[in-house]
Write a structure and sequence with these properties.
single chain; alpha/beta; 7-stranded mixed sheet; about 15% strand; disordered N terminus
């Protein structure tokens, strides 16, 4: 996910110029045309960024942390908790480019008192805020009060090639439903849950609107996700980088962002339970788990 650098063409008179093959030339032109089209489209449409720099944001399921890095460097977001499901070692192994992003974010948090950015590893989206539970994120997550809880491109990885089983794993058994249940109590009174997924099958089979409805949420709005709105961001595959880069780029694929709101006015029973638990924990001990 690092930025590619254009190499200068230092041709020498000792080495005659060799015309690239027609197929390579066509590929370069096609790639250039696609890039220009995407840039023009972005210029003519105002991309929707569903949060503001003043929001208290929890990012779940980060891959190489390039999205978090873009929020900080290009959009001036300074109150973030960014988490990965993988351990720190796994993140580095799967996404070597993550090291530079994380180092810059952590350095900014150390050197600037106005920057409140935390990087947490080994956080399970389905166990957010659960005290005494491995993967809950500890006190930083458990204290809640988030204006936005963001999960970009949730996916459990290639557990099976069977589409129906993939749908079930991502729908309910493993991920989305349990994520919604875990994230809702952590929201501030007017907070929202933001999920971005690819369009088309098999993702359309997840029926994400219905899943949210069953756990007390509703779609406030949805819109096309535009990766160009986040300079430096590149989609990270769940299984890690592909050697040689591969031909598949998630940021070039159509995707949609959903903004989920709590159906009923006022705090839900889950939020009330969480608030009571937080009050008891703060009175008993300040020790983190």
């Amino acid at each position: 996910m690092g930025k590619s650098k254009k190499q200068k063409n230092n041709r020498s008179s000792h080495y005659p110029y060799t015309r690239p093959s027609k197929s390579n030339s066509q590929q370069v032109k096609a790639a250039s045309a696609t890039s220009q089209q995407r840039q023009k489209k972005l210029q003519h449409t105002n991309p929707t960024i569903p949060f503001t720099p003043n929001d208290h944001i929890l990012l779940v399921g980060e891959g190489d942390f390039s999205f978090t890095h873009s929020l900080y460097t290009h959009h001036s977001f300074v109150t973030l908790i960014a988490t990965s499901y993988d351990t720190a070692t796994q993140v580095t192994d799967k996404y070597p480019q993550s090291t530079a992003y994380i180092e810059e974010l952590e350095s900014a948090a150390r050197e600037d008192e106005d920057v409140d950015i935390s990087i947490l590893h080994g956080v399970d989206a389905t166990k957010l805020g659960k005290g005494g539970s491995k993967g809950g994120g500890g006190k930083e997550v458990r204290q809640g009060g988030f204006d936005r809880v963001v999960f970009n491109f949730p996916h459990v990885g290639g557990l099976t090639k069977d589409v129906n089983r993939q749908v079930r794993h991502n729908q309910a058994t493993e991920l989305l439903v349990n994520f919604f249940k875990a994230a809702t109590p952590l929201l501030a009174p007017a907070g929202t849950i933001i999920v971005t997924i690819f369009e088309g099958e098999p993702y359309s089979l997840w029926n994400i609107r219905d899943l949210a409805r069953h756990v007390g949420l509703k779609v406030g709005r949805s819109f096309k996700f535009q990766s160009e709105a986040y300079p430096g961001y590149k989609h990270a595959r769940t299984l890690g980088n592909i050697e040689g880069g591969g031909g598949w780029k998630g940021e070039d694929r159509d995707a949609r962002t959903y903004i989920f709101e709590i159906k009923d006015e006022g705090p839900t029973q889950a939020q009330l339970t969480q608030q009571k638990k937080q009050k008891n924990e703060s009175s008993d001990s300040d020790e983190d788990d």
